[in-house]
């Protein structure tokens, strides 16, 4: 019986390792960016990831205005949004980016209360940037994030 179990294990081990590595190898190393096609309320959102060893090792999610100023740096906007929505760009952008980094997928990320519009945009941008990483295409992909 031990011999049969060892034989089965020896036969299954390569398949298990291949399946585990197959998922890892589906993302090609490099930097990938997806950006919104249009400005929304004066901001254009984007997601940039860095893939190394088949894993996402860095995620940036943010938005910029036409002059290139980053949304999460805007303290006046932060104060207004915090008092109105209970969250602000520097909080929700880090939350969504952190979830993508830890899960290595955008499938199970929960919306943060007060940032559901950005959640919808993030989901579309994350899906597009992950597809770019699967293809190994480092061109910036432009995504229609309108709701």
Please describe what this structure looks like.
There is one protein chain. This protein is an alpha+beta fold. It contains four helices and four strands; from the N terminus they run αβββαααβ. Strands 3-2-1-4 form a four-stranded mixed beta sheet. Strand 2 (about 45-50) and strand 3 form a beta hairpin. The longest helix has 23 residues, at about 1-25.
Summary of the model, kept short:
The protein is of the alpha+beta class and 147 residues long. Helix content is 47%, strand content 20%. The chain has helices spanning 2-24, 75-85, 89-103, 116-135, and strands at 30-36, 44-52, 55-64, 141-143.
Q: How would you sum up the global shape?
A: globular
The succession of helices and strands, N to C, reads HEEEHHHE
Euclidean distance between termini CA atoms: 60 Å
- Amount of beta strand: 15-25%
Reported for the largest beta sheet, the result is: 4 strands, mixed
Structural class: alpha+beta
pLDDT averaged over residues = 83
Question: Topology of this protein?
Answer:
Layout (H helix, E strand, L loop, with lengths): L1 H23 L5 E7 L7 E9 L2 E10 L10 H11 L3 H15 L12 H20 L5 E3 L4
Parallel strand pairs: 1-4
Antiparallel strand pairs: 1-2, 2-3
């Amino acid at each position: 019986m031990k011999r049969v179990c060892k034989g089965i294990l020896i036969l299954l081990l390569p398949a298990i390792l291949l399946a585990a590595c197959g998922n890892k190898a589906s993302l090609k190393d490099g930097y990938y960016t997806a950006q919104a096609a249009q400005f929304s309320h004066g901001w254009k959102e984007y997601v940039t990831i860095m893939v190394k060893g088949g894993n996402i090792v860095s995620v940036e999610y943010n938005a910029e205005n036409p002059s290139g100023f980053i949304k999460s740096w805007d303290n006046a906007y932060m104060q207004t949004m915090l008092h109105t929505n209970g969250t602000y760009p520097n909080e929700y952008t880090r939350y969504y980016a952190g979830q993508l980094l830890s899960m290595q997928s955008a499938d199970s990320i929960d919306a943060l209360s007060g940032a559901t519009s950005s959640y919808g945009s993030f989901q579309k941008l994350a899906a597009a940037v992950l597809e770019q990483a699967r293809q190994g295409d480092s061109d910036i992909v432009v995504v229609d994030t309108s709701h």
